[in-house]
Amino acid sequence: MKIKSRLLKASVICVTFCLILLSTANVSANKQSFQPLKKTITSTQQIIPQKLDKGSLLSEGFEGGELPEGWSVLETNSYQNWFIGTDPSWAHTGNCEAWVNYDNHEDSDEWLITPNLDLTEYVAATIVFWVWSDTNFPGATAKLHIRGTGFDDIIWDLIQDENWTTSGWYELSFNLTNYIGKTINISWQYVGFNGQSFGVDDIEIQGTPASEPALQITSITGPIGIKATIENTGTADATNVQWSINLDGGFILLGKSKAGEEPTIPVNSSIDVKIPLILGFGKTIIHVVASCAEGVSTEKTQNATVLLIFVSIK
Ligand SMILES: [Ca+2]
Ligand SMILES: [Ca+2]
Predict the structure, then answer these.
(1) Are residues 192 and 298 in the same domain?
(2) Looking at the structure, do residues 287 and 226 belong to the same domain, yes or no?
(3) What's the pLDDT band for 125 if we cut at 50, 70, 90?
């Protein structure tokens, strides 16, 4: 009986202890399960090179498996900081994402910062990205900062601005047009104590390039005198277009050079500029230059032979 009683007591203690353990595990399971596993990159994982078109200022899915070049982090302590997770089950797309785990030991103040972005050549810009989190643990929040010389604007705050009762990936987009003409960087600041974990993936920053003229000398022809065609292949009118034609070499008695000005070459239009009559002989190099008030210029050289009034283009 004694042995049975002892066994029973031991069993009760054991079961109680297990129940306590289980209940403790339950309390933290909700958040412990959010910790993505670290894994090493295997040879089957591809590092996808970035291909940016003219309108793309930044495109980042963290698929390189490490903090991308030009990015930085600020850490206030050594525990629960930003890292690049490499488990595909935690990424929004691909294998990787930027992640910071919740911290219930120390205050978090962890920054993930993009490279500097020059918005001077653009007339509009937007940022779109995905974040993983929820708003059920308001002890910590994530803030989106736009920073540049003399300013630090918080344009989004997870706990203040969202009501995400289910954890998962959410898409966010913001207009950056207020920052046109400036150089900025964008930061995700994870700050507070014992909040929800936070992930970022698939960041796209698109800009609308400012329109500008583009000048091109598309042809230089003879045979009586020289005619050059200057074309505006850009996206804005070229104004106060200064042009010149010069002949270098040979024995040129008449029509060695000429310069002029055209008030405007509209988009997708061209003008013909001329030296109407050239008199001379010998091999020469025709040099045509054009520039406009918008600071764009172009030039072209062409070999030719002059024989009396005839110009033969080589
Ligand atoms: Ca990714
Ligand atoms: Ca930390």
Answers:
(1) no
(2) yes
(3) very high
